[in-house]
Structure formats: C-alpha cells, structure tokens
C-alpha cells in the first residue's frame, strides 16, 4: 500500500528547503482514511545549494557569488530522525504548531540515507521519488490525522540546503521568505490540491549565528514551510515570491484492512 498526499498531480515547486543551519526540520501534516503498517517514507529531492566557505562571512546581498545550484550531485549520505505525531485535537493546517499541545508522539526512529545523485531538474515534477527513508520495524498508523516530522543531518557543510519537490499554493504578492518586501511579479495563483495538510518547518530553539557549524536547533514548534513561485524566480536576487504548500510525501507499507 502506498499513501501519497499529492497522487498523480503535477508538482509546481522544487524549493521546499532543508538546511542544517536554518531549516533542519521539515514536516508534513496529513490525514489517513484507513490504517497502514508504514515501513518507508519516500520523498523527492530536486537539487542542492552548494556554497563556498566565504558564503558564511559575506553580507546577504553578495552571497550569490559564493553558491551554485546543483541538480546532479552525490554521493550524499545523511541521517534522518523521523517522528510521527498523531493529532489529539491539534490543527493540521495552521500558522503555528506546537507538538507539546494537541499531539501525541506515536513513533520515532533514526535512519541513514545514501543517495548516488538527485534525479535533477525536470524529472521530479511528476511525482518521481528519489529518496527512500527506511523506518525499520515501522509503525501501525490508524486512520486519523498526523504530523510526520523529519530532522536532517549531514557532515558536508558546503551543502547549505537540500530542496524538495512539492506544490505551492496561494496568491501572496509580497517578496522575500518572510514576505516583508514589495513584490513586482504577476503570476497565476495555484490551487491548493491537498487542503487537509500542509508542510512545516521547525522553529528550533534559538537564532542562527551565521556560521557553518551553527544551527537554530531542534524544537517543538513549527511554522508553515514555503516554496518559491517558479514563474517569479530571479537568479541572484532576493525578491522571490514564496507561498505555503505541501511537500511530496509517500507512506509505504501494508494495508491493515488486507489482513
């Protein structure tokens, strides 16, 4: 049995971010309409942002000189701690989540993932996962509402971000990740094709100090993750339009109803 939150849909975003320093946790809320013995999670990574050491000591407006977007890299080994929370009243679609209230942890495990290379630009738009997270003995998830959280770690600090495929939706016209600037891009808003859930990024435990070794840390609170509107991307500039949405995520396992 395979549960997909975005089955058969054309994905329109390839920049939901995972970063050791600023976005070490990426989560997706979802609703299961039947039980599943889940043993694997599948994701689709689009590309990596590779930086030079100078990136971390350079002002924001000049950092573009010290990074490259790389769709074909590897091999890459990274560790993932997957934690699944069942909602006991917590909202799945919200501007803020705190898993200490309204959620119950039902599963957690550590996994190591080895990737030869990403599938590259263009190939993941049609739901082609290239990452498999083995959940070991796995867990039985009853029908209900869940938050699947993944905490990432890898050794190569030159890999600043991994970026995942998904779908962004909304009509935001403000630019910048925090939408603090006036935008100048006109685009056609995309429909939210999975209103039951949303992608989230962890807020950590403190601010990032700007160094390669620093991090916001792993906490219990989350805000919606965002991805760039591809029609509004301007390389080398920092006025991109970002919208909330969903990462592509598949749960693989055995249907309990088949017993």
What does this structure look like?
The protein is mostly beta strands and 259 residues long. The protein has one domain (2-258). Helices cover 0% and strands 47% of the residues. It has no helices and 19 strands. The strands form 4 sheets. Strands 8-16-15-3-11-7-9 form a 7-stranded antiparallel β-sheet, with no helix packed on it. Strands 2, 5, 6, 12, 17 and 18 form a 6-stranded antiparallel β-sheet that branches. Strands 1-19-4-10 form a 4-stranded antiparallel β-sheet, with no helix packed on it. The protein starts with a strand and ends with a strand.
Task: Considering the chains and any ligands shown, give keywords for the structure.
19 strands; 7-stranded antiparallel beta sheet; mainly beta; 6-stranded antiparallel beta sheet
Quick recap:
The protein has 259 residues and is an all-beta fold.
Number of separate domains = 1
Q: Low-confidence segments, ≥5 residues, pLDDT <50?
A: none
Number of helices: 0
Residues in helix, %? under 10%
State the distance separating the first and last CA atoms.
12 Å
Backbone CA Rg: 18 Å
Please give the oligomerization state of what you see: single chain
Strand order of the largest sheet: 8-16-15-3-11-7-9
């Amino acid at each position: 049995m395979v549960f997909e939150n975005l089955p058969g849909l054309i994905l329109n975003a390839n920049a939901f971010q995972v970063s050791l320093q600023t976005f070490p946790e990426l989560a997706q809320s979802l609703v299961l309409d039947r039980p599943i013995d889940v043993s694997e999670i599948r994701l689709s990574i689009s590309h990596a942002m590779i930086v030079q050491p100078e990136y971390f000591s350079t002002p924001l407006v000049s950092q573009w000189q010290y990074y490259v977007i790389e769709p074909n890299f590897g091999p890459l080994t990274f560790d993932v701690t997957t934690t699944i929370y069942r909602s006991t009243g917590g909202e799945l679609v919200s501007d803020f989540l705190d898993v200490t209230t309204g959620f119950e942890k039902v599963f957690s495990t550590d996994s190591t993932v080895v990737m030869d290379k990403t599938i590259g630009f263009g190939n993941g738009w049609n739901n082609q996962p290239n990452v498999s997270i083995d959940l070991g003995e796995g867990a039985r998830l009853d029908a209900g509402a869940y938050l699947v959280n993944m905490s990432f770690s890898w050794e190569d600090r030159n890999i600043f971000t991994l970026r995942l495929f998904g779908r962004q939706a909304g009509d935001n016209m403000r630019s910048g990740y925090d939408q603090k600037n006036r935008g100048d891009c006109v685009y056609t808003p995309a429909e939210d094709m999975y209103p039951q859930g949303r992608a989230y990024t962890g807020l950590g435990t403190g601010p990032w100090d700007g160094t390669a070794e620093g991090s916001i840390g792993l906490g219990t609170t989350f805000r919606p993750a965002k991805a760039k509107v591809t029609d509004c991307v301007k390389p080398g500039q920092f006025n991109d339009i970002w919208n909330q949405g969903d990462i592509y995520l598949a749960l693989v396992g055995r249907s309990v109803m088949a017993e």
